[in-house]
């Protein structure tokens, strides 16, 4: 039962990542690209957590936590850049 759920989960997350990459490349506005990148981080975290369940390893949880922190900081920096035009002012 768990293996079927993991296959469905992998399929859904990879499909969501493909749609995010499409929006990242094609997005008409920079704000759309930032949101697509932010959602891509979240999908990468979900994929890593699914791999952690698949391989029964706790090491992947730490990697997911690091990606979450870097994704949050990156999204804030990009939003600030789009709002003001610079990061340090």
Structure, briefly:
With 89 residues, the protein is mainly α. It is built from three helices and no strands.
Description:
87% of the residues lie in helices and 0% in strands. α1 (2-26) runs antiparallel to α2 and α2 (30-55) runs antiparallel to α3. The model has no long low-confidence stretch (mean pLDDT 91). With 89 residues, the chain is mainly alpha-helical. It starts with a helix and ends in a 5-residue tail after the last helix. The chain is built from 3 helices and no strands. The protein has helices at 2-26, 30-55, 59-84. The chain has one domain (2-84).
Topology:
Layout: H1 2-26, H2 30-55, H3 59-84
Helix pairs in contact: 1-2, 2-3
């Amino acid at each position: 039962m768990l293996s079927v759920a993991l296959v469905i989960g992998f399929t859904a997350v990879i499909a969501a990542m493909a749609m995010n990459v499409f929006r990242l490349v094609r997005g008409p506005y920079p704000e759309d690209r930032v949101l697509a990148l932010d959602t891509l981080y979240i999908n990468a975290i979900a994929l890593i957590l699914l791999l952690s369940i698949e391989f029964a390893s706790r090491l992947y949880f730490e990697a997911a936590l690091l990606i979450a922190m870097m994704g949050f900081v990156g999204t804030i920096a990009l939003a600030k850049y789009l709002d003001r035009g610079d990061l340090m002012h």
